[in-house]
Design goal:
This protein is an alpha/beta fold. It has two domains: 29-103 and 123-158 and 248-288, D-Maltodextrin-Binding Protein, domain 2, CATH 3.40.190.170; 163-245 and 289-348, 3-Layer(aba) Sandwich (D-Maltodextrin-Binding Protein, domain 2), CATH 3.40.190.170. The chain is 43% helix and 17% strand. It has twelve helices and eleven strands. The strands form two sheets. Strands 7-6-8-5-9-11 form a six-stranded mixed sheet. The chain has a five-stranded mixed sheet with strand order 2-1-3-10-4, sandwiched between helices. Helix 2 (44-62) links the parallel strand 1 and strand 2. The longest helix is centred in the last third of the chain and has 35 residues, at 263-297. It is globular, with a radius of gyration of 25 Å.
Length: 360
């Protein structure tokens, strides 16, 4: 080929080569995801799903460039109410969501593991890790979500410890006798050892009005939530009982949606869910002291419950942990083994329970 022919060939092919170089090596696939929670965007775990989970998934997927998420976030009752996330994900009203598990003790009984063991650990990080490890080691938790057409990703602990907030001054367990106390799920059973105390079921978004109207005398919640929902205005007295941290949130994905996701996206979502678990637990602990200060600054008064009274309260309760374990055992699940394994994990992490819930 002479120089003249070579020049002509280059002249003809150069535009095509230039055009080819302008296109990426592969196209990025966009995947839509509808995220739901019935709680408002100001709730800590919802806020951090927006500020941490979503950007972290986007960042990790961008490393390969194969996939890009298109997120649609719907919170605060726009699609489901707080108690409706489990059903909403089951029906496909959302693709991914944060289920508040304490509302679903009959459908998700194993999720009550930390709730049936109060007075053990007031550390959201330790409880989150322990429960999530149990979920990986024992199939019961994941099977419960499978029955609801969902895939379990990770457990969330958003509270450092339950405390008791009151309309009137409160300084001892005796002040709870004959009282009406708002709670949610299993923590209502903490009152069973207190004469005349009556638990009134409610949700976090209800507690302000329940206290304000006098429907209840006290409410069990945690300082960060008390600050966020301005509980000091209607419950200006806090009894620091340190009832313990409890897992109340679980990130799940609709099973039909999950099946269609590429493995790369599944892996990233699973990894980020665990990172989100640790992230919100750390925030819960970091916010604990600041939230107590905010409560006091807003006019609240904090009284620390005497240690002897805490022990007496724990011992006066029925052993709800053994009841829980026996119920799971009766369904063919390893409830007793789960309970012992969970307490062992917390013991290894340095937490000594006020009462050994694994024995009668």
């Amino acid at each position: 080929m002479n120089n003249r022919h070579l020049s002509c060939l280059l002249a003809a092919t150069l535009p095509a080569l230039t055009a080819l170089a302008a296109f990426p090596a592969h196209a990025t696939e966009t995947i839509k995801a509808v995220v739901i929670d019935g709680y408002p965007a100001k709730a800590m775990w919802v806020r951090e799903f927006t500020d941490f989970f979503i950007p972290e998934v986007d960042k990790r997927l961008a490393e390969s460039g194969n996939f890009k998420m298109q997120w649609q976030e719907s919170y605060g009752g726009s699609i489901v109410k707080p108690k409706g996330v489990l059903e909403g994900i089951e029906l496909g009203l959302g693709d991914i969501g944060i289920v508040t598990t304490i509302f679903h003790s009959s459908k998700l009984p194993s999720q009550a593991l930390s709730a049936v063991t109060p007075f053990v650990a007031s550390d959201a990080r330790a409880v989150a890790r322990a429960v999530d490890e149990i979920a990986k080691e024992f199939p019961a938790m994941q099977r419960e979500f499978e029955k609801q057409n969902q895939v379990y990703l990770a457990t969330g602990v958003v509270l450092d410890t339950y405390q008791v907030f009151s309309r009137e001054p409160i300084s001892s367990v005796n002040d709870l006798k004959g009282a009406k106390v708002a709670g949610a799920g299993m923590n209502l059973r903490y009152l069973e050892g207190i004469d005349g105390a009556v638990g009134v079921r409610g949700g976090l978004t209800d507690f302000y009005s329940m206290l304000q109207t006098g429907l209840v005398d006290q409410a069990m919640l945690w300082p960060e939530a008390a600050a966020t929902f301005k509980i000091a205005e209607v419950g200006p007295y806090m009894l620091q009982a340190d009832l313990g941290a409890v897992n109340t949130k679980t990130v799940t994905v609709n099973a039909d949606y999950w099946k269609k996701l590429p493995d790369e996206v599944k892996n990233v979502m699973g990894e980020v869910a665990v990172a989100y678990r640790d992230h919100i637990a750390s925030i819960a602990m970091d916010n604990a002291a600041a939230s107590r200060k905010a409560y006091v600054d807003a006019g609240g008064t904090i009284v620390e419950l005497d240690e002897a009274e805490r022990v007496a309260w724990a011992n006066a309760m029925p052993n709800i942990a053994l009841e829980w374990a026996a119920e799971l055992d009766g369904k063919g699940e390893a409830g007793t083994d789960m309970l012992k394994a969970y307490l062992a994990k917390l013991s290894k992490a340095g937490f000594t329970p006020l009462r050994d819930w694994s024995v009668k």
